[in-house]
Write a structure and sequence with these properties.
alpha/beta
């Protein structure tokens, strides 16, 4: 995880000078001690240089691809739409192959790489992996396979949680797969923060059933959080939502969490990181006319289009209309 932080710091140092990325690539100077990170930075810069050149040839709005194993990633898309309305979006929900949490690392990586390549083929100029399981298990493989910048949800969520905690003690809740990967633990420990992880497997089916304000959900949440804020973490002051379904039950979690706790949503944190990267990278700058129109969002689902149209609005907050079925071959 320290290597990942070094890579990100080096990347932002190179790109943070205000120059065009093509110029930054030419003057990039690194010390011998940074050799382990240089290859990653140079590959990232080469991708941005290619996009830098494209900028001269188009005035189209930037296009951001968002990927999730199902519906939960729509909460990340919702945050992106609110924060970055000047972009267009392509959302891919691998609804035929969910849940990813019960699958092997190799299978998750294969599915995620297929989705990333599909989104690139459709014109995505940046990829947001809005799936905690895919980020935790396969972010390196996705990044290696992609030809555009890639942002996951774990690092932004951990960064926001660490910054929000005065006690430097955080409770993380997520799916079995995300918790078992210890991705958030590694990210938080790299920032000097202790954590207590708690898997909450019943939350996802309750959310997808539409029971976001149901008494059963509140009772289950009370049981989970009582167990989470225990074993020396009674005084933890941040609850990190490590699943993109969980923002839908944030009001319930606010009611049952200890009064001193701040809830951190990785969806909002990820949108902030994407916005910052867009300020630093040369994606197309839309004209005034294009800037004034509402974002165009295209949805792709590997299972029932009708089900996606029915459940999608619960996560996105408004109707989901342009949904197309896609069949990714095994």
């Amino acid at each position: 995880m320290k290597l990942e932080m070094k890579k990100l710091q080096l990347f932002l140092r190179v790109c943070g000078s205000g120059r065009r990325v093509s110029e930054s690539a030419q003057i990039c100077v690194v010390s011998p001690s940074e050799g382990a990170e240089v290859g990653w930075v140079q590959r990232s810069l080469s991708r941005l240089v290619m996009m830098d050149q494209i900028t001269f040839m188009t005035t189209h709005r930037p296009c951001i691809g968002v990927f999730d194993s199902g519906f939960g990633g729509l909460t990340v898309l919702k945050a992106l739409l609110k924060l970055i309305p000047d972009a267009d979006y392509i959302y891919f929900g691998d609804t035929a192959r969910l849940p990813y949490g019960s699958k092997s690392v190799e299978t998750v990586a294969r599915y995620a790489v297929e989705a990333a390549r599909f989104l690139e083929h459709k014109g995505a100029q940046m990829l947001v992996i809005a799936c905690n399981t895919a980020t935790a298990l396969a972010l390196d493989q996705i990044t290696a396979a992609a030809n555009v910048p890639v942002v996951g949800v774990v690092e932004p969520g951990a960064e926001r949680a660490a910054a929000s905690s005065t006690k430097k003690k955080v409770v993380v809740i997520g799916t079995e797969a995300t918790v078992s990967s210890h991705a958030y633990r590694k990210a938080l420990q790299a920032r000097g923060v202790q954590d207590h992880e708690k898997a909450c497997p019943l939350f996802v089916p309750l959310v997808e059933e539409g029971w976001t304000e149901h008494g059963v959900t509140e009772e289950v949440a009370g049981i989970y959080l009582k167990e989470a804020f225990a074993e020396g973490f009674e005084d933890a002051d941040v609850l990190l939502l490590g699943c993109t379904h969980y923002p839908l039950i944030k009001p319930v979690l606010n009611r049952v969490a200890p009064a001193h706790v701040t809830i951190v949503d990785s969806a909002d944190a990820t949108a902030d990181v994407v916005a910052e990267l867009l300020r630093r990278t040369p994606l197309p700058d839309p004209s005034q006319g294009e800037r004034s129109r509402v974002p165009h969002v295209t949805f792709f689902a590997t299972d029932s289009v009708e089900k996606f149209r029915r459940l999608g609005p619960k996560f996105l907050g408004h109707p989901v209309e342009d949904v197309q079925h896609v069949d990714l071959k095994e």
